[in-house]
Amino acid sequence: MVALAGQGEHRGLPLRKADLCSLEKRMSLPLYSPARVAGLLEKYGLRATKSLGQNFLIDGNALRYMVEQSGANADSQVLEVGPGLGVLTHGLAETGAKVIALEKDNRLGDVLSETLADVPNAQVIFTDALEWDYGLLPEQSLLCANLPYYISTALISKFLESGRFSKLTFLVQREVAERLEAAPGEDGYGFLSAVVSLYGSAKRLRDVSKNSFYPVPDVTSSIAQIIVRQGAEPPKGMIKILEAALHHRRKTIRNNLRLANYQPEEIEAALLYAKLEPSARGEDIALEQLALVAEILEGKK
User: Fold this and answer.
1) Beta bridge partners of 222
2) Which domains are present in the chain?
């Protein structure tokens, strides 16, 4: 039986006999079936919570594609964030991989106990993924998840900075997936694009229709993947400089660094060292030049 850590109590709504018959039929369908999802929500008296970015995957093709692209197998440690009803969790566990799923919503404890009952290699931990210690994972772990859209950028940054993953495969808004691939000077390039480039390379694999989720979201999603370079370690202070240089789009590098409370004389010395014009904008600057700025402003701290 699936291990649940930090499970909260929840009682489903009472059901009539006729309702139970209908539910029994739905419970025999695949986990990703819209009728099965609706049946589980009804059985446990649940509703998707918009504030937690809950949109449950109901597309078998997208599910199988994500599992395949993740590379999960019996030798893998896989992390999932936001398992919801356990649809993707179950698919990952079926590969034989050890799966840890982080879920913030304690209400889902009972339903996950049911849907993951036959995969003992899956563990659900009820916690905030933004607070969890990713250092608990072994190196070369895999990430496969339908990420909560409202915290996807923060999560991707944490995954990369942890140094624990070799590959990340995830569902996000198409706009976010496009930003992952963007290069300096291109539309959409920003802090997330730069961080991804520091640690590896990203690719948008395929789009997923709004109708592949329940409830239907307002935006089209994409399956994206980041391959992490082994031993990738940014120069000292580089992340801090990226946050400063790219915080305000269309502002000059000089003004952004001033807003980040760097001293004017330090800024001028750093820009001169990196051979940058003070009027250059952060989103147009190559990472190699920003690394030189970091060397001056943060390297000696």
Assistant:
1) 172, 207
2) 3-228 (3.40.50.150), 238-297 (1.10.8.100)
Question: Would you say residue 2 has pLDDT above 60?
Answer: no
Check: CB of residue 214 under 8 Å from CB of residue 38.
yes
Distances 156 to 42, 160, 188, 268, 288 between C-alpha atoms, Å: 33, 6, 16, 32, 22
List, for residues 166-189, the tens digit of each pLDDT value: 999 999 999 999 999 999 999 899
Closest C-alpha to 85, from 44, 121, 51: 44
Rounded to the nearest 10 degrees, the angle between the axes of helix 191-199 and helix 238-245 is 160
Model confidence at 8, pLDDT cuts 50, 70, 90, reads: very low
Is residue 11 over pLDDT 50? no
Task: Specify which residues 221 forms β-bridges with.
Answer: 173, 208
| Residues 73-122: tens digit of each pLDDT | 999 999 999 999 999 999 999 999 999 999 999 999 999 999 999 999 99
Cα angle at 88 between 207 and 96, to 5 degrees?
125
C-alpha distance across the termini of the chain, in Å: 50
Q: Which of 61, 93, 97, 77 is nearest to 167 (CA)?
A: 77
**Quick one: three-class SS letters along 194-217?**
HHHHHHEEEEEEEEECHHHEECCC
Task: Confirm if 258 and 281 have CB atoms less than 8 A apart.
Answer: no
DSSP alpha helix (H) spans, the chain: 17-27, 34-43, 60-70, 87-93, 109-115, 152-162, 174-181, 191-199, 238-245, 253-259, 264-273, 287-297
The H-or-E segment that residue 92 falls in is: helix 87-93
H or E element at residue 16:
none
pLDDT > 60? residue 38: yes
